[in-house]
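#onboarding

Welcome to the new folks! Below is a worked example of what a typical request in this channel looks like: someone posts a single protein sequence, and someone else replies with the predicted structure as tokens. Don't worry about understanding the tokens yet, we'll cover that in week two.

Example request:
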Amino acid sequence: MEKIERLKSDQGGENESMIFEVIKRGLDQNVPVLPRQVVDLGLRYDLTLPLTRFYASNKSSLPRVFKSFQTGNVWRAERPQKGRFREFTQFDLDIIGEKSITAEIELISAGLQILIDLNLENSSTLLVNDRRILRDIMLRARIDIDDHSSTLIILDKIDKIGRSGVEKELKELRGLTSVQVEELFDLIERMERDSDCFQSSEWEWYDIPYLIASLRKIYPDFKVSFSPTLVRGMGYYTGPIYEVVNDFSNKSICGGGRYDDMISKWSGDSVPAVGFSFGFERIMDLLPESWHISNGEHLAIGYSSINQFQEAITLQKHLLEAGISEVSLVKKPKKIKAVFFEDLSRQACDRFFDMDDFAPSLLKDKRYIIEVSRPILRQA
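Example response:
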């Protein structure tokens, strides 16, 4: 459970209308009250909000770049149907404290590798967009800033109700004019055409071209596409957003994005943050009855620059394919001290490989990587 004021902070988008609310305990049963006046708690609708609360309360004792993996149940007052539940399980990966696009590349790569390991890559497509791009489109369509959130909620329904349904709701529910709606979709269609090469100077593409190019280079067989109508339902996203759709599911099976402003709501400090969430039940519906998960050593790869990061994440992919069960990426400080290895030890890493020891000719040789990597406990 979370405090109701945290859950209803105008950051959860449409999910805030589906909160299971909890009335205060010990009320006088003889005194009439309105339920909305005595609600103080609610069941969490995702794992991100509790994570940001935890980080804000424990920031001083956490690593500068905090990487989190968590799983837990969440609740939404949905109308139960195939692929939608009132109680379901989420698996979340988050990186807090890294402002560069390397955080998105690392998280999405982890997500794609999981789907590949589960043999879902041939039927899945990664869709990518950026909340800043959506903001720019709405401003150019002369939609008031106060109407942006509600417009995005309706635009997010385009896969369910089609363009005509979205146009109707934008006019009838949001009061947009026919000219505004027509211009909005004209901009979206032009941007979609120009996204083939991302070379048009008409648009600010932000980090999208680099993000897509990097993911296509690392996972050339995984379909990655730019989608200017991808919104993601949460109101707290501030930058790149992404989700994976599967040919055999009518819902996204995982997704996430950057939420740089959320932690400052609780702590006052601006902290960059990126997340990737997996829908456990939706993925389970797509899997055969059994699959194999390997166990073994946890290796950390240290890199020092964004160019070296590209080599590191490629090496991570090869090592996972070679059978090492866990391979983490960590940005090295300018001078490595014992505290660096202590942090790795707390993250249950067994060995550390420095990209400065990287030998391109031995990229796929797992034995070489293990041989030159350092045991974490001995270093710490």
